[in-house]
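As a next step, the fold was encoded as tokens, giving this record:
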Amino acid sequence: MGNLLKIGVLVSGNGTNLQAILDRCADGTLSAEIACVISNKAEAHALERARKQGIPTVHIDHRDFPGRAHYDAALVDTLRKHDVGLVVLAGFMRIITPVLIDAFPAAIMNIHPALLPAFPGLHAQRQALEYGVRITGCTVHFVDAGTDTGPIILQTAVAVDPEDTEDTLSAKIQLEEHRIYPQAIQLYADGRLKVEGRKVIISPLP
């Protein structure tokens, strides 16, 4: 267990991507362990998912802090107390600041429900439908100071059917999110990701 990558997961909601990561850790296909799950919302169901697995959970309410930077400093303190090596954003509905980004350089991942750089920000599925694209998908990327602008790690495509609604398209994309997010974390755990400028280089298996 001591050699496993320790990840800290930041959540705000239901936590389906957290569950996918938990499942992959449990079945041994992801050589990592979740050291802590932190939420800005006490009622986030993701916290209950973690508690059921005996994983430490922490509620840090953003409303208790005078600004984003002060809040992120508290996140950094908590993550470091749990010896976190990789920070994973899983439905964390907060804009993070350089305080957190600089504390974990090239070690914060996010997943976005679109093929970035297309449709960044909120309501990506709605944006895709309104634009009339035939293909969308999801992207795992490292986090930088921009909004969904960090170096791309993995992407997968999802077909947009004529009858799709925002809900049905979201459900299809989410299935792929649950597949590729653990894959990206495993690449990091294996030491196979290297950021060169704006690109992520994935080294081959030895």
